[in-house]
Amino acid sequence: MKIFVSDDAEKWFRDEMDIEEGDSIRFFVKYGGSTAVQEGFSLGLMKEEAEDPAVTTTKNGILFFVEEKDVWYFDGHDLHVGYNPTLDEPVFEYKKG
């Protein structure tokens, strides 16, 4: 599994979540919702330091990660984080790695 973050998504995190170089964003599993990879679960995000990261990527000094306990959710898919300008929010795509 890999994490890819677009330039526009990274800018959204900086602007909306007051993220700066040296900060970390965790992608985690939430109960409820539905995605292309899991029924009954969805993806959440928060500013948080990594404890047991399984997958990481760094973009412009910001660490994006998934903890080991949440890797099952992705079911072998890579996470592509983009940005939807109409909704002004990040969007998540799951692509088989």
TrEMBL record:
<feature type="domain" description="Core">
    <location>
        <begin position="1"/>
        <end position="89"/>
    </location>
</feature>
<dbReference type="InterPro" id="IPR035903">
    <property type="entry name" value="HesB-like_dom_sf"/>
</dbReference>
<comment type="similarity">
    <text>Belongs to the HesB/IscA family.</text>
</comment>
<dbReference type="InterPro" id="IPR008326">
    <property type="entry name" value="PdhI-like"/>
</dbReference>
<dbReference type="Pfam" id="PF01521">
    <property type="entry name" value="Fe-S_biosyn"/>
</dbReference>
<protein>
    <submittedName>
        <fullName>HesB/YadR/YfhF family protein</fullName>
    </submittedName>
</protein>
<dbReference type="InterPro" id="IPR000361">
    <property type="entry name" value="ATAP_core_dom"/>
</dbReference>
